[in-house]
């Protein structure tokens, strides 16, 4: 599949039409998605109209934008004008249609991107597996017998399967980073509040963020700069190539790197740790460092997630409780019943934990940690090993991501280069506002041949 940057370059130069790329993406979805289950709605009429509008701008001799003609999809909690925003819930299939696009969708459209589809997710974003009672289970393109992660699983699977070059998801406790790791993609959870949340169905306001998925650093950064409204210094982002490594050297000069120890390494796959240690060497070496009380941070994140999610849904739970997926409903009800004192204590601990992280960032610019501790679990055996015991994957596969989004840090997930093998991913963690440094580090790793997307193949 051609890169997003490559598509934009061809459309802007008139080599190929945006309509041709849109038609190719629609055909790919129709051919592939039956085995994957990533797409909830194919927006072919809108897509072709948007593509024709881009082509008309090109024909008039004007620039349609840095994402000209790039097909993309969005997690089914972004408002799309004229459609109900389901947030992955069957009970919202007949909700009042959105009157306008989400701000992020509007920004991509203004940059010339073409919206092709809405994408599957865990109901109300409360999960890590994209097992959905109304819209089905999204399967991992690297092995359809395995989970693809969640809650932005459809967004990851659509890109990993080659149906789309870009997609948008959301991340509350790891919902971009987990599926990126399990499907071998690059995924960005930005600094909390850095990207527009207007028109995105909420879950936990304290943690919710949106971000892109892509197969390369350059494509991910192209999406990020478009969404953030801050183009990268040095010219047109659609012309960047992360593989030459040259444009990134100034941004990376003098950067210090550490490897998070303790909780973050205790249950990780040994091959993942070997890869992560190789990353540290490639980035100039990085000592093992400890972030204290990580287990408490994860527990506090659970408390705040349950409490805010429960409070958000309480009015609907009072009138339509039986319309929820039981697995979602029961957790929301439990959260709504939490004593307020627990939430207050979690908030206080959050401030303490953020201060400890800030102390680490006085010494380091980038911290490395596994994203998911293992390869994608099987759909028929949704478990993983933690502390030598088999535990449910749905509740535990985010154990390495939750403590970081708990304090709003930016995290860029990168895939180990593992052709013919199930994906593993690493989190590059930055200080608030440090996305540029994370992109520079990711580009250096990609240029060194240590990271990269591996095409799905039969690994069973």
From TrEMBL:
SUPFAM superfamilies: Amidase signature (AS) enzymes. The keyword Lyase does not apply. InterPro entries: Amidase, Amidase_dom, AS_sf, Carboxybiuret_hydro_AtzE. GO terms for molecular function: hydrolase activity. This is AtzE family amidohydrolase. Residues 23-438 form the Amidase domain. It comes from Sphingomonas crocodyli. Gene3D superfamilies: Amidase signature (AS) domain. It comes from the Bacteria. Keywords: Hydrolase. The lineage of its organism: Bacteria, Pseudomonadati, Pseudomonadota, Alphaproteobacteria, Sphingomonadales. It holds the Pfam family Amidase.
